[in-house]
């Protein structure tokens, strides 16, 4: 293995981990508060990507500012619209069996999957203005795109820091944490759990859409990307432990890096790698890497 | 529940006659019975409150075993192939089950999914043994010693599918009513209490898991024989999702449910796909949500509630 390939694999892995982290973060964040594993999160990723590409084409992508605005704006819009829709749907199933709630999001995922195909067709979309506008730089003899080198990992870390600040330093964030720990007690303390759940859902949905939007300039958008992503981000979330935000960051890095090393060294195993890691981790730590033990409820 | 078994037998025979008199219905009917068996496997786990997004893996394993044996050991009889295919799934189910029964709910579902994805990838990549994404052909074997042409073979498979389905319904229903089966349902209600009674929830779930793997394997063996081709797609997670969908549609209250769901699903697919092309998944999604909203116990729940109301002990 030459030095160049090592560096390429490292950089690819970090950039991919950034995307994976954003999507998995949305998933785990929603689960923490609403206690629903949202299968339709894959659709949010796909819709975020498509919306960003469409908006980018429409605005023409004249300058870097416009391209970035297209990426961020579209993920906010998609997050609010689809997040609200999903939340309204799930409210109708609030007191049902958790498995049935999971299946409702699965149903929603199937509906979105066809809607996407109707709106954007099956032709691949590819809008890469922003990548060219950011230019390239040289890392230890390897030419690499700034977008993937700096922007995507930077955005992921930025979102992580922002979320940590929000959860630990603001009133709203503290309320979210309280609801995560114990919904009943939090409600008794006067927290409007319904509003908190809605807010969480929209923020989580935006994160999923942002992941898709940031992926759109470097991957071609085709039907089915949502399905692939949801399974992968599930793997990250389960490996890290449900509801673990910092854990998701480390796990995404672990899975992202091992996947990109696989791409260069054993391409046959690329798709399997995340699952192998997940199975190995869960064998040793059944509740995920970063979960603290929970009291057993009788 | 004897009445339900009689009704199921009559319905099975009626479907058999329909299939034999209308040849174009033969394959859809065989497929419905296959889907029914697989969905029943999911139904067993649903009773324990667990869900698997990876059980298509077992159908796939059995299908591949049948395909491999049918072309490498030409003399093997169809009936023997079905048995060997199902045994392969049971064996894998025992092994995987020992590992996954330590987990509940989403972890359980995800682990099954992960393992099935590993299999899916391995089947697609190791071209030399598995034929890659093209899959393997199933050579038409003899059936109970008879060399059969294509039409006769399909008719015989339909008969076999009906008989096997009825046997499976009867057996699984017996299991549901046995102490092991009733205790399995208690995993969903309250696992801790179950453990206090001195019953091992892990062992119970393992038994249920092996049963469900065997049912999916049986479905896969029949599926492979009737299609004549197995591909890795058989084990893709969306296929597992289909099984779950059918199990929910039919309901897990009675073993017949899975088959009612499968028939409805297969014919919904036939007509909906022709009527509105490109919106098939959307129709499925809407149906799933509507069913969960109005009939959380599936179609079978609807029937049993009516019976209870008639008897006056609702």
Automatic annotation (TrEMBL), chain B:
GO terms under cellular component = plasma membrane
According to the UniProt entry, where is the signal peptide? none
GO MF terms here are: branched-chain amino acid transmembrane transporter activity
User: What is the topology of this protein in the membrane according to its UniProt annotation?
Assistant: Multi-pass membrane protein
Q: Which InterPro entries match?
A: ABC_transp_permease, LivM-like
| Pfam families linked | BPD_transp_2 (PF02653)
- CDD domains this protein is in? TM_PBP1_LivM_like (cd06581)
Report the main location listed first in the record. Answer: membrane
Which cell locations does it reside in?
Answer: Cell inner membrane
Q: Which PANTHER family match?
A: ABC TRANSPORTER ATP-BINDING PROTEIN (PTHR30482:SF17), HIGH-AFFINITY BRANCHED-CHAIN AMINO ACID TRANSPORT SYSTEM PERMEASE (PTHR30482)
* Protein name as annotated: Amino acid/amide ABC transporter membrane protein 2, HAAT family
Species, as recorded: Phytopseudomonas seleniipraecipitans
Q: What is the lineage of its organism?
A: Bacteria, Pseudomonadati, Pseudomonadota, Gammaproteobacteria, Pseudomonadales
């Amino acid at each position: 293995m030459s030095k160049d390939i090592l560096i390429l694999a490292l950089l690819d892995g970090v950039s991919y981990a950034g995307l994976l982290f954003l999507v998995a973060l949305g998933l785990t964040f929603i689960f923490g508060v609403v206690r629903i594993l949202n299968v339709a999160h894959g659709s949010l990723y796909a819709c975020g990507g498509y919306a960003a590409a469409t908006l980018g084409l429409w605005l023409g992508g004249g300058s870097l500012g416009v391209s970035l605005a297209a990426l961020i704006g579209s993920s906010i819009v998609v997050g609010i619209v689809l997040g609200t829709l999903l939340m309204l749907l799930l409210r109708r199933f609030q007191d049902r069996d958790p498995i049935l709630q999971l299946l409702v999001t699965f149903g929603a995922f199937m509906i979105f999957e066809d809607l996407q195909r109707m709106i954007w067709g099956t032709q691949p979309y590819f809008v890469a203005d922003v990548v060219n506008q950011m230019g390239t730089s040289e890392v230890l003899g390897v030419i690499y795109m700034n977008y993937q080198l700096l922007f995507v990992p930077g955005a992921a870390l930025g979102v992580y820091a922002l979320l940590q600040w929000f959860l630990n330093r603001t009133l709203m964030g503290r309320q979210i944490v309280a609801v995560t720990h114990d919904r009943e007690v939090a409600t008794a303390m006067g927290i409007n759990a319904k509003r908190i759940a809605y807010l969480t859902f929209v923020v989580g949905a935006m994160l999923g859409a942002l992941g898709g939007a940031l992926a759109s300039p470097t991957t071609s958008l085709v039907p089915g990307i949502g399905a692939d992503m949801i399974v992968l981000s599930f793997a990250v979330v389960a490996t890290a432990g449900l509801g673990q935000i910092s854990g998701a960051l480390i796990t995404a890095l672990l899975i992202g890096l091992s996947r990109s090393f696989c791409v260069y060294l054993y391409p046959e195993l690329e798709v399997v790698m995340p699952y192998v890691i997940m199975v190995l981790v869960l064998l040793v730590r059944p509740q995920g890497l970063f979960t603290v033990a929970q009291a057993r409820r009788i | 529940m004897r009445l339900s078994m009689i009704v199921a037998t009559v319905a099975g025979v009626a479907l058999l006659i329909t299939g034999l008199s209308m040849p174009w219905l033969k394959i859809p009917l065989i497929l419905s019975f296959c889907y029914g068996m697989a969905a029943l496997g999911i139904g067993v786990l649903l009773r324990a409150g667990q869900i698997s997004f990876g059980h298509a893996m077992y159908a796939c394993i059995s299908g591949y075993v049948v395909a491999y044996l049918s072309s490498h050991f030409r003399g093997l009889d169809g009936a023997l192939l079905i048995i060997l295919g199902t045994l392969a799934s049971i064996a894998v189910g025992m092994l995987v089950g020992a590992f996954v029964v330590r987990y509940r709910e989403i972890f359980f579902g995800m682990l099954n999914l992960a393992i099935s994805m590993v299999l899916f990838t391995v089947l697609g990549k190791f071209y030399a043994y598995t034929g890659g994404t093209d899959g393997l052909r199933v050579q038409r074997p003899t059936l109970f010693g008879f060399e059969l042409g294509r039409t006769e073979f399909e008719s015989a498979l339909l008969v076999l599918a009906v008989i096997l389905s009825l046997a499976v319904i009867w057996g699984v229903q017996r299991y549901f009513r046995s102490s092991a089966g009733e205790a399995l349902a208690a995993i969903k209600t309250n696992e801790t209490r179950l453990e206090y009674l001195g019953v091992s929830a892990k062992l119970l779930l393992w038994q249920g898991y092996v049963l469900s793997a065997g049912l999916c394997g049986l479905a896969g063996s029949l599926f492979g024989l009737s299609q004549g081709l197995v591909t890795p797609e058989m084990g893709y997670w969306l296929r597992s999702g289909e099984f779950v969908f059918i199990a929910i549609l039919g309901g897990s209250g009675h073993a017949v449910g899975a088959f009612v769901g499968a028939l409805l699903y297969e014919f919904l697919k036939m007509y909906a796909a022709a009527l509105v092309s490109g919106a098939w998944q959307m129709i499925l999604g809407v149906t799933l949500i509507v069913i969960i909203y109005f009939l959380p116990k599936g179609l079978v729940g609807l029937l049993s509630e009516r019976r209870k109301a008639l008897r006056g002990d609702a």
